[in-house]
Design brief:
Blueprint lengths: L19 E6 L9 E6 L9 E2 L3 H4 L29
Antiparallel strand pairs: 1-2, 2-3
């Protein structure tokens, strides 16, 4: 195998931030798969019960489908603002 000396080097791949952590996990059934619930630490998105790979594998976390781990993608909700409260 010959090296290409004139090709530009590749940029390192961007890591996806895993912001969703396991909130609750069920024991694996007969199929060997566990059921887990996740919550995002950035935007607060919470999932329903998802069929996971296993509790140990899911403890590493997942990328949030709502904010993708970036706080800039989080849209402010009108429920959290205090503009309309008279107190």
């Amino acid at each position: 195998m010959q090296l290409d000396l004139f090709r530009k080097p590749r940029r390192p791949a961007k890591r996806n931030p895993r912001t969703m952590g396991v909130v609750d996990a069920g024991t694996p059934g007969a199929s060997g798969r566990a059921y887990v619930r996740f919550e995002c630490t950035v935007c607060g998105h919470e999932t329903d019960w998802l069929r996971g790979r296993g509790v140990t594998a899911e403890m590493k976390g997942r990328v949030c489908p709502v904010c993708k781990g970036d706080p800039v993608n989080v849209k402010p909700s009108c429920a959290s603002s205090d503009e309309g409260n008279p107190s």
